[in-house]
Each structure stands twice: as structure tokens, then as C-alpha cells.
Write a structure and sequence with these properties.
DUF7240; flat; mainly alpha; single chain
């Protein structure tokens, strides 16, 4: 991010989505950089499987069928804020050529 002129991402970026995306990119680059295409592909797939694996069987029953979260979403993660964040990203990317 610094090479893109963002000296302090935690203060300069409007939401954590951009920071998380950058971390994912760095993890993928670090995991899959052997030069062996098949090995790199498997390493990327393994990382993505570990990051975004489905919930283990039975996890949906942990809190009971009537469970409703009582915690409000963290700052920047309400449905409207998430939508606005993606809209801002789309606008920013549409100007890049």
C-alpha cells in the first residue's frame, strides 16, 4: 500500500475491507511463489480453503435454532456501510486504466 501512496492504511482507508484484501493478497503471494505452477496452484487453493472453509457440520446448532445475535455489527460493517464501501471501491477502480 505504501508503494501506492498510502502511508498509513489504518487512518487513510475508509474501511477495513481494503486492508483485509491486501493481507489476503500478500498471503497468496507468499504462499504461492515457488515458480512451480502446479505446486503454486495447490498452495493457493489450500490457503483459500483454510480461509473460507464452510462451517463444520453441526456448527449451526451451537447456539440453538432460535438464536439471534445481540451484538451490533462492528463499525463499518452494517449492511449500508458495506454496500457503500463496495460502491466506493467500484468508483475508484472504474477510474483506473
Amino acid at each position: 500500500m505504501r508503494s501506492d501512496g498510502i502511508a498509513d492504511p489504518m487512518r487513510e482507508l475508509p474501511h477495513m475491507h481494503a486492508v483485509i484484501d491486501e493481507i489476503e493478497t500478500l498471503a497468496l503471494e507468499g504462499t504461492a511463489s515457488t515458480g512451480d505452477k502446479d505446486r503454486d496452484r495447490r498452495a493457493r487453493e489450500d490457503l483459500m480453503d483454510r480461509l473460507y472453509a464452510p462451517a463444520p457440520e453441526g456448527a449451526e446448532r451451537l447456539n440453538g435454532k432460535d438464536y439471534r445475535a445481540q451484538v451490533k455489527p462492528p463499525e463499518g460493517f452494517t449492511p449500508g456501510e458495506v454496500e457503500a464501501s463496495f460502491d466506493a471501491f467500484t468508483r475508484a477502480m472504474s477510474g483506473m486504466r
